[in-house]
Amino acid sequence: MTDLVATRRSLHGAAELLLAGPQHARSGTIRLIPCADGFATTTEPAASIVRGSLVHDGRTVPLDGRTIAEAAAAVGLTPCSLDDLYQDSTGIGLDERLVIDDEAAAEIAAAFALGHDALQAFHPGETPVLWPEHFDLGITVDEVNYGVSPGDGFLAVPYAYVGPWTPLEGAFWNAPFGAARPLSDLTDLPDLAAWFAEGADLTTKETNR
């Protein structure tokens, strides 16, 4: 668990400073997307973090044991903070050494990949976005958030969530923000998509009372 928490924090910081930050500076958006074995920018500069390594401009550098500044310099990126957009960042600075465990990084990438496919199966009309602020993948439909988190202060392991903007009551709603379910309970795409659909159905029933 310690490896997962430390790796998640490092990947979260790298997503902010090495992907979303430079992308916002050049292209005006912070939206990221999952990719094979990791996650990536949606526009310029084209960069990704794959299997715990930063990839940009034909160059690849492992993040484990390196600082944000060192990794950026190795591939020709300029790291950028998102502090002007939001305050709830990881707090990782340019000179903090990152900690990346390969198995933990693979678990996080798998969670995002499963979440992406399940969200598209559940609601094909929405494109899932990996948001750097909370480092979660999600969509919003009819004032309800659906998505997957690699873990956070609420639940340390990867989990799925349904978050209606208006709080609801009932056994399904087991989290302060709505409902949460560990991905260990929802191990394949049909199960996860069905759980999102269950949340949508319950939300509709509750709000139409």
Your description of this structure?
This protein is 35% helix and 22% strand. The chain is an alpha+beta fold. The strands form two sheets. Strands 1-2-3-4-5 form a five-stranded antiparallel sheet. A five-stranded antiparallel sheet has the order 6-7-8-9-10. The protein is built from four helices and ten strands; from the N terminus they run αβββββααβββββα. It has two domains: 2-33 and 42-102, no CATH class; 103-207. 42% of the residues are buried. The longest helix is centred in the first third of the chain and has 26 residues, at 2-27. A hairpin with a 2-residue loop joins strand 3 and strand 4 (53-56). The mean pLDDT is 96.
**Tally of extended strands?**
10
How does the major sheet shape up? Answer: 5 strands, antiparallel
Radius of gyration: 17 Å
* SSE series: HEEEEEHHEEEEEH
- Ends distance: 42 Å
Number of domains: 2
The pLDDT mean sits at: 96
Biggest β-sheet: strands ordered side by side in the sheet: 1-2-3-4-5
The structural class is alpha+beta
Residue share in β-strands: 15-25%
* Helix fraction bin: 25-40%
Task: Please mark out the parts with pLDDT under 50 across 5 or more consecutive residues, or reply none.
Answer: none
Count of DSSP helices? 4
Describe the structure in brief.
With 209 residues, this protein is of the alpha+beta class. It has helices spanning 2-27, 68-75, 102-122, 189-207, and strands at 32-35, 38-41, 47-50, 53-56, 59-62, 129-131, 136-141, 144-149, 159-164, 179-182.
